[in-house]
Specification:
The protein has about 300 residues and is an alpha/beta fold. About 40% of the residues lie in helices and about 15% in strands. It has a single domain, classed as Ribonucleoside hydrolase-like (Inosine-uridine Nucleoside N-ribohydrolase, Chain A). The structure holds beta-D-ribofuranose and calcium ion (CA).
């Protein structure tokens, strides 16, 4: 089967870095571009991190489009408490060996979607600012998007406030635009990515994969330290890699169609994703919401894909 063409929209971020590695290593995917957004750290740092990861794995051929430096309607909220000052603290990573594409994220997405012979899958793993802007500015190009598989939201507890998951909390207005776009959406939320906690055994499996695996192991080790401090958990969830793995192997997720609404007004619950599991609103579903993850199958996809990469 021909590989699925994808554009990854990221804010690296430890788990975004692993998501990038997974996507580039998986023969089932063809990474057409990476676009960066402000989120875990400001835009300059997320862009530098995306370039450093791609340089590490020898993928300077993937165009990197620089995106939004702030959410649509709010000041940026970042997460250095989780990802460190650089956004990718832990391993020593060489500086990027190539520059971003001059077009910027939205123009790059538009050019690639327009030119593609097959519909493209978008995989956003940061705040949805770039994707929302792209959909608003280029509504006609929706026709050539196959679907959006995003890491964000939660059916239940949040991680940034008790109600909200980080990516949707940071830019709820963008999330609302994306969920109202009419495109097929798979929401890979926090409740499900929490099944993808990487403990000491996963770290050792990664380390054994070779030079790229060693960097991945160092990333997860740093991430484990901050997760322990902030959430009291020893096995940090590799959230963003789950969304990519679900494109590689859709069977790793059990999903259900339902209506998802984004809270943008309330101060208390800003960024909450309200998922109508039981169809109480009787509104048409706008997303396939992940309910369960086959944890073992996910890690197999992760190890198998990272094992393909050569530093
Ligand atoms: C999400 O927030 C970020 O900190 C992670 O990279 C992930 O995309 C999890 O809530
Ligand atoms: Ca992310």
């Amino acid at each position: 089967m021909a590989p699925t063409p994808v554009i990854l929209d990221v804010d690296p971020g430890h788990d975004d870095a692993l998501a990038l590695m997974l996507a580039c290593g998986a023969p089932e995917l063809e990474v057409r571009a990476v676009t960066t957004v402000a989120g875990n750290v400001p835009l300059g740092k997320t862009t530098r991190n995306a370039l450093r990861v791609l340089a590490l794995i020898g993928r300077g051929d993937v165009p990197v489009g620089v995106g939004a430096e702030a959410p649509l309607a709010r000041p940026l909220h970042t997460a250095e408490n989780i990802h460190g000052e650089s956004g990718l603290d832990g391993p020593e990573l060489a500086e990027p060996t190539f520059a971003p594409d001059g077009r910027g994220a939205v123009r790059l997405m538009a050019d690639l979607v327009e030119a593609s012979a097959e519909p493209i899958t978008l995989v956003p793993t940061g705040p949805l600012t770039n994707v929302a802007t792209f959909l608003e500015e280029h509504p006609r190009l929706k026709n050539n998007i196959s679907r959006i598989v995003l890491m964000g939201g939660s059916m239940g507890l949040g991680n940034t406030t008790p109600a909200a998951e980080f990516n949707v909390y940071v830019d709820p207005e963008a999330a609302r635009i994306v969920f109202e776009s009419g495109l097929p959406i798979t929401m890979v939320g926090l409740d499900v990515t929490h099944e993808a906690g990487a403990g000491p055994e996963a770290i050792e499996r990664l380390r054994a994969l070779g030079p790229v695996g060693e960097v991945a192991a160092e990333l997860v080790t740093f991430f484990a330290g901050t997760y322990r401090k902030v959430y009291g958990s020893d096995a940090p969830p590799i959230h963003d890699a789950v969304a990519v793995a679900a494109v590689v192997e859709p069977g790793i997720l059990k999903t259900r169609p339902m209506r998802v609404e984004i809270e943008c007004e309330s101060q208390l619950t800003r960024g909450e994703t309200i998922c109508d599991l039981h169809g109480i609103w009787s509104r048409p579903p706008n997303a396939e919401v992940a309910l369960e993850l086959d944890r073992e199958a996910f890690f197999e996809v992760l190890y198998r894909s990272l094992g393909e990469l050569v530093a």
